[in-house]
Each structure stands twice: as structure tokens, then as C-alpha cells.
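Colleagues,

For the teaching module next term, I've prepared a clean inverse folding example: a structure given as C-alpha cells, and then the sequence designed for it. I'd like students to try predicting residues themselves before seeing the answer, so please don't circulate the second half yet.
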């Protein structure tokens, strides 16, 4: 019988999601970029979504797929680009998941106490910009 006690980790809340969306939006506005932001909880459920009316329609799907990819693989999407190239770690990764994965910068997993609690995806700017906006959001939550 184990005497170790499990430590509960607080889940990603709606309030946390609002912080993430607001921080990503502010970072994008400071760069004069219009983006869509998606926040998922650890189960892949949509907690928050924001798309400015000026954003390209596809940016909403892009931000969602980036968040989903970061969540499923528990890694920043920017770090996964080379992994899907021929000979890469995920080159043969099946695409028969709930939604196709998207290996382009802008998706980040969100951790609390070292555990995965959700993910954020930002779409609408250049990949490097989206990554920076998502990073600013995660840093604001910390």
C-alpha cells in the first residue's frame, strides 16, 4: 500500500482563460496585428475564443488547431515543425484524430505546478508573431 498522497493541481479556469485571451490580444494590438485566440482546457474543451471582426476568418480555425496540437503533444507548436518533416519524429503521425494537427508556431501548452492544464493557440499574424503573442499570454498567467 502506497503512503504517497496525490497533490491536486488546480485546473485551467474561465478566469485563467480570460487572462490568456486578454494578454494575447494586447500583445497583438501592440504590434498592430489582428489575431484570433483559442484557449482549451486539459480535456480539449473550448474555454475561450476571440476573433476580432477584422481578423481573417480562417484565423479562428488556425488558432484552434494550434491550441489542439500543443495540447495533444504537450509541446509548443513551434518546436514541432521539424518533427513532421520526412525523417522527423512525427513524420508518420496518424491524422485520424478529432481534428487535424497544425505544426506551425503559435500554439503553447499551459502548465500549472508542472502539469498540463490546457493550451492556447494564436492565429492571424506571422508564425513568429503568433508564438510571441501566445508566450506573452502564458507569461501573464504565471
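(Answer key — instructors only)
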Amino acid at each position: 500500500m502506497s503512503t504517497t498522497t496525490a497533490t491536486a493541481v488546480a485546473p485551467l479556469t474561465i478566469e485563467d482563460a480570460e487572462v490568456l485571451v486578454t494578454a494575447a490580444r494586447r500583445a497583438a494590438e501592440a504590434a498592430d496585428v489582428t489575431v484570433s485566440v483559442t484557449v482549451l482546457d486539459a480535456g480539449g474543451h473550448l474555454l475561450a475564443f476571440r476573433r476580432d471582426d477584422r481578423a481573417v476568418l480562417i484565423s479562428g480555425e488556425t488558432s484552434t488547431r494550434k491550441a489542439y496540437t500543443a495540447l495533444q503533444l504537450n509541446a509548443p507548436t513551434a518546436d514541432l515543425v521539424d518533427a513532421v518533416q520526412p525523417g522527423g519524429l512525427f513524420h508518420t503521425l496518424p491524422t485520424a484524430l478529432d481534428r487535424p494537427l497544425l505544426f506551425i508556431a503559435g500554439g503553447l501548452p499551459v502548465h500549472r505546478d508542472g502539469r498540463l492544464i490546457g493550451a492556447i493557440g494564436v492565429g492571424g499574424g506571422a508564425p513568429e508573431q503568433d508564438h510571441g503573442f501566445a508566450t506573452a499570454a502564458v507569461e501573464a498567467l504565471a
